[in-house]
Design brief:
By secondary structure, the protein is of the alpha/beta class. The protein has helices at about 5-10, 45-50, 60-70, 85-95, 110-125, 145-150, 185-200, 225-235, 290-295, 310-325, 330-345, 375-385, 405-420; strands at about 25-30, 35, 40-45, 100-105, 135-140, 170-175, 205-210, 210-215, 220, 240-245, 265-270, 280-285, 355-360, 365-370, 385, 395. The protein starts with a helix and ends with a helix. The structure holds pyridoxal-5'-phosphate (PLP).
């Protein structure tokens, strides 16, 4: 591969074109492994950023795409519809919490967050309350890289402080303190309650990642906290936007992380694992109340419609991915991965360089005391046949659910060896 051309001409995520870190040439992927050009296989402990939950070269997904290509890869969604979109949206309505009944198909996670925010603003505009145009978000939250989404990210850990002057100034509550297995006391929610009480008149919605804060800190928090946020939204008549782009489709041990708390949001965003890691597709679902509120308003319609909305190829493979997930023992698999991660990563607690080790569902996190040298750690893991992408102090894994015990051991052994020696 022409890696010189790549270095000089192609942006990678959060990359420099002056002094880019190495990128590794990948030739193919199969099962839980991605294969370097030189033939070496690496266990993908990242599931290509939470997306490839069945692994790679999955016959059911490839067959669904092949069959759809023979019919049509794409047609516009304005004024037209098709079976793949209908099948997928039926499934999404069926498997997400009950009050979510209306589906907007978007082309990436960040765009679905834009759509969710726009839904909330348009809803209040329709009620004659256009002054309700601010969000209450959480510190350590991450919601994407586009401008509306950036404005809801943690202003520090969200990676977007450079643009602070150009973003809508929303309100931020402290990151949830109670851990996953802890109750949430009045004190733990006091600041969020105060913010809501003080700014109720201008708040449209609370936006959060339920239970698992991803890219902004890899933190797991109490379902009790989430229940209390839902109750406050009801009390003060705010919409709740749950961003399950990372947690959706079983990653946290429940099909959707909201289920840990038994709550339902007014608006839900999905992405990442939606197509089983094959194509870009996302969705924003909302309740009847939100949809009808929007459509009874001044505009009479919801004001959004991307060119590739409802792409049939992506919808077809998303349907196949959901079918495959639900047909298999995903709960047992995710529970077994959680068990393994707890046990196998525990020895790292004894290392002075390690601040915390935690696991929830098929997510394992090692939080170091100091930021790690990503290139060095990555190189050492690759020598042990493992692919991870550490981020600051966080070295974490969310492997495909289908990973075999032996491969999972290779993955965690490599983490323990490499991180235990830092
Ligand atoms: C990844 C992510 C996004 C952004 O999705 P993209 O497809 O990268 O635009 C938004 N919210 C959460 C919680 C995410 O993990």
């Amino acid at each position: 591969m022409d890696l010189d051309f790549d270095r000089n001409h192609i942006w990678h995520p959060y990359s420099s074109l002056i002094d880019p870190p190495p990128v590794y040439p990948i030739a193919r992927a199969e099962g839980v492994r991605i294969y370097l050009e030189d033939g070496r296989g690496l266990i993908d402990g990242m599931s290509s950023w939470w997306s490839a939950l069945h692994g790679y070269k999955v016959p059911e997904l490839n067959d669904a795409m092949r069959a759809q290509i023979e019919k049509m890869s794409h047609v516009m969604f304005g004024g037209l519809t098709h079976q793949p979109a209908i099948d997928l949206c039926k499934k999404l309505v069926e498997i997400t919490p009950a009050p979510l009944t209306r589906v907007f198909l978007a082309d990436s996670g960040s765009v679905s967050v834009e759509v969710a925010i726009k839904m909330a603003l348009q809803y209040w505009h329709s009620q004659g309350r256009s002054e309700k145009d601010k969000l209450l978000a959480l510190r350590n939250g991450y919601h994407g890289d586009t401008f509306g989404a950036m404005a809801a990210c943690d202003p520090v850990t969200g990676m977007h402080h450079l643009f602070a002057g150009h973003l809508t100034q929303h309100f931020f509550a402290p990151a949830p303190r109670p851990k996953f297995d802890q109750p949430c006391g009045d004190a733990d929610i006091a600041e969020l309650r105060q913010l809501i009480e003080a700014h109720q008149a201008e708040l449209a919605a609370v936006i959060l990642e339920p239970i698992v804060q991803g890219a902004g800190g890899m933190r797991f928090y109490s379902p009790d906290y989430l229940r209390r946020v839902r109750a406050l939204c009801d009390e003060y008549d705010l919409l709740l936007i749950a961003d399950e782009i990372a947690t959706g489709f079983g990653r946290s041990g429940r099909l959707f992380a909201c289920e840990h708390a038994g709550i339902s949001p007014d608006i839900l965003t999905l992405g990442k694992a939606l197509t089983g890691g094959t194509m870009t597709l996302a969705a924003a679902l909302c309740t009847d109340r939100v949809a009808e509120g929007i459509c009874r308003g001044e505009a009479g319609v919801f004001m959004h419609g991307p060119t590739f909305m409802g792409n049939p190829l992506a919808c077809a493979v998303a349907s196949a991915s959901i079918d495959l997930l639900l047909a298999g023992p995903w709960q047992q698999r995710v529970a077994a991965i959680e068990n393994h991660l707890h046990k196998a990563l525990a020895p790292l607690r004894d290392s002075n360089a390690v601040a915390d080790v935690r696991a929830l569902g098929a997510i394992g996190v090692v939080e170091m005391r100091e930021p790690v040298n990503m290139m060095q750690v990555q190189q050492a893991l690759i020598e042990r046949g493992v692919w991870l992408r550490p981020f600051g102090k966080l070295v974490y894994t969310m492997p495909p659910y289908v990973i075999a015990e032996q491969d999972l051991s290779q993955l965690t052994d490599a983490m323990v060896e490499v991180l235990g020696n830092l």
